[in-house]
Structure to design on (487 residues):
C-alpha cells in the first residue's frame, strides 16, 4: 500500500535519515516513536515530498517513484491520495471551518459543490465539529482546530493519513478529544501513520510500532510485542524513560 | 487678516479644491491601481522564483527606487517624445507615479507574502492544491491584510507626491494654487491653503484606513450566509451556524 525504501536525508551535511525502510499495509495503524531529533518528522515530510529526500524510493498506490527525480505531476498524484495532519494544525486562517474542509474537495479535486458539502458535513460530524462550521480557526481551541484539521485531511478519502505528533501542541486536557477521533478512524479501518509520544495510543491503537533513533529504524514489530518484550536494549531504555513520564 | 485676503482665500478655496477632486484624486487612484498591479506581479515572480523574471523584477526595483521620482516623471513626459513616444501630461503622470510606486509596493507585497507561516503553503499542498492555487486561495488572501497598512501609507505618500505633476503641466490641486498665488501676490496664504486641502484629503484617507483595517480580521458574524444552502443535501440550515 505504502512502502518507502532506503530514504536518506541530510540537512547541511548532517545526516538525519540514514536509510529508512518502512511499510504500511492497507487498514494498518503504524505508530512511529522515538526520542525527539530522531528524524520522525523528517521521515513524514520526505514521504509527502514537503522535503526532498537525497535518496530513496516510494511505492504508493501501485506506482513506484524515485524520491529524488519524481516529477511535480507525480508528487501531486501522491498527495491527492495522502492526508497530512500537522503538529501545529495549519488550518487556513482566511477560511471558515466549512471552507477549510471544502477547499481540498472543490478547488483541488473539482468536486461538485453540493456533493462536497455533503462530504464536508459528514466528516465534520465525525470529528464533532458540526456546530462550528462558520467559525474561523482563530476562534477555536487547539483541540478543536486539530479535529477540523483531521476532518480536512480525511474528507477526500485519502488512502493513507500521516499524523505528525497531532497532540503535542495541545494542552494536556485537550489531547483526549483528538486521540478519541483518531481511535474512531482507526476502528473504521483508516490507514494511518502516526508519529506520537502518546505511548498509550501507540500500545492500544496501533497495529504496528516503529522505534526510530538517530535516523534509523532500531526496531519494529506488533505493538503488543514491542511494548511487552522489546528486543533491542535501546528500545527498552526509551520505553522505560517514557513510562516514567506518564 | 485683511478683508481682501479673507476674500481671496474664500474664493480660491473652491478653485483649488475642485481640481483637487477632479484631477489630484483620480491621478492618485489610477496611479495607485497601476502600482498595485505592478507591485503584485513583481512580488509574485520573486517569491515564485521564476528565472529571468525574478532578475527583471530586482532590476526594475533597483532602477525605480534608486532614482528621483521627478527625474522619472521628466523622462516619461519630456524624454520619451524624442524617441517617438508622446504622452499627454495626465497619462504620463499616471505612468510615472504608478511605475515608481510599483517598485515600493513590490517590496510591501513580497515581505507580506514571506510573513505567512510556511505551514499554510504546506497544508495547501497536502490537500492537493498546486502552487498557483495555493497562492490564490490561501497565501495571497492572508498576505493582503499584512500588506494593507504599508500599502495605505504608500497611498497617502502618493497623494502628496502627485503635486510633482505640476511640473509637467498637469493642472491639479497644487498647480491651481500656484496660478492663483501668482495672480494675487499672496503666495503664503495660498500655499497654506493648498496644504490644508492636502491635509483634508490625507486625513480622510487615514480614517478610511482605520475603518478598513477593522474589517480585515477573520471573524464569524451573526448573519453570515450559508453559501451552499440551496444544495438541499438533506441537511438543514441550523447545522451551518
Ligand atoms: N529544515 C531543517 N533544517 C536543518 N535541520 C533540520 C531541519 N529539519 C530538521 N532538522 C534537524 O533534523 C533532526 C531531526 O529532526 P526531526 O525530523 O524534526 O526529528 P523528530 O521529529 O524526530 O523530533 C534534528 O536534529 C533537527 O534539528
Ligand atoms: Mg517531530
Amino acid at each position: 500500500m505504502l512502502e518507502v525504501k532506503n530514504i536518506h536525508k541530510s540537512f547541511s551535511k548532517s545526516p538525519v535519515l540514514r536509510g529508512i525502510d518502512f511499510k504500511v499495509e492497507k487498514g494498518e495503524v503504524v505508530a512511529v516513536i522515538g526520542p525527539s531529533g530522531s528524524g520522525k518528522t523528517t521521515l513524514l515530510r520526505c514521504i509527502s515530498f514537503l522535503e526532498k529526500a537525497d535518496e530513496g524510493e516510494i511505492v504508493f498506490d501501485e506506482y513506484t517513484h524515485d524520491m529524488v527525480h519524481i516529477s511535480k505531476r507525480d508528487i501531486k498524484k501522491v498527495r491527492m491520495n495522502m492526508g497530512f495532519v500537522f503538529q501545529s494544525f495549519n488550518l487556513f486562517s482566511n477560511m471558515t471551518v466549512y471552507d477549510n474542509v471544502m477547499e481540498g474537495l472543490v478547488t483541488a479535486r473539482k468536486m461538485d459543490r453540493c456533493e462536497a458539502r455533503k462530504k464536508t458535513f459528514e466528516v465534520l460530524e465525525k470529528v464533532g465539529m458540526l456546530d462550528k462550521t462558520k467559525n474561523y480557526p482563530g476562534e477555536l481551541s487547539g483541540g478543536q482546530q486539530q479535529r477540523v484539521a483531521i476532518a480536512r485531511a480525511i474528507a477526500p478519502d485519502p488512502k493513507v493519513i500521516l499524523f505528525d505528533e497531532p497532540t503535542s501542541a495541545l494542552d494536556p486536557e485537550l489531547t483526549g478529544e483528538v486521540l478519541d477521533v483518531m481511535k474512531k478512524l482507526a476502528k473504521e479501518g483508516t490507514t494511518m501513520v502516526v508519529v506520537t509520544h502518546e505511548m498509550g495510543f501507540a500500545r492500544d491503537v496501533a497495529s504496528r510500532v516503529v522505534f526510530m533513533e538517530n535516523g534509523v529504524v532500531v526496531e519494529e514489530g506488533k505493538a503488543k510485542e514491542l511494548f511487552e518484550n522489546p528486543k533491542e536494549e535501546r528500545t527498552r531504555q526509551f520505553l522505560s524513560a517514557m513510562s516514567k513520564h506518564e | 487678516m485683511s478683508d481682501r485676503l479673507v476674500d481671496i482665500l474664500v474664493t480660491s478655496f473652491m478653485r483649488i479644491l475642485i481640481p483637487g477632486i477632479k484631477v489630484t484624486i483620480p491621478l492618485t487612484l489610477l496611479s495607485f491601481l497601476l502600482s498595485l498591479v505592478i507591485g503584485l506581479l513583481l512580488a509574485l515572480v520573486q517569491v515564485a522564483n521564476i528565472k529571468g523574471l525574478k532578475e527583471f523584477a530586482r532590476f526594475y526595483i533597483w532602477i525605480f527606487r534608486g532614482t528621483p521620482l521627478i527625474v522619472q516623471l521628466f523622462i516619461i513626459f519630456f524624454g520619451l517624445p524624442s524617441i517617438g513616444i508622446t504622452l499627454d501630461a495626465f497619462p504620463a503622470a499616471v505612468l510615472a507615479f504608478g511605475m515608481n510606486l510599483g517598485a515600493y509596493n513590490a517590496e510591501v507585497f513580497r515581505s507580506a507574502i514571506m510573513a505567512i507561516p510556511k505551514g499554510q503553503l504546506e497544508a495547501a499542498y497536502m490537500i492537493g492544491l498546486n502552487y498557483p492555487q495555493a497562492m490564490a486561495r490561501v497565501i495571497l488572501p492572508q498576505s493582503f491584510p499584512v500588506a494593507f497598512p504599508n500599502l495605505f501609507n504608500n497611498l497617502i505618500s502618493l497623494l502628496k507626491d502627485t503635486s510633482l505633476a505640476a511640473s509637467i503641466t498637469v493642472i491639479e490641486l497644487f498647480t491651481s494654487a500656484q496660478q492663483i498665488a501668482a495672480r494675487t501676490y499672496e503666495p503664503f496664504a495660498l500655499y497654506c491653503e493648498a496644504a490644508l486641502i492636502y491635509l483634508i484629503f490625507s486625513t480622510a484617507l487615514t480614517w478610511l484606513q482605520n475603518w478598513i483595517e477593522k474589517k480585515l480580521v477573520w471573524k464569524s458574524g451573526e448573519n453570515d450566509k450559508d453559501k451552499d444552502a440551496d444544495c438541499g443535501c438533506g441537511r438543514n440550515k441550523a447545522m451551518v451556524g
In short: The interface with chain B takes residues 48, 50, 72, 76, 79-80, 82-84, 86, 88, 90-96, 98, 103-104, 107-109, 113-115, 117-118, 121, 130, 133-136, 138-139, 149, 152-153, 156 of chain A (CB under 8 Å). Residues A 40-41, 165 surround magnesium ion (ligand 2) (CB under 6 Å).
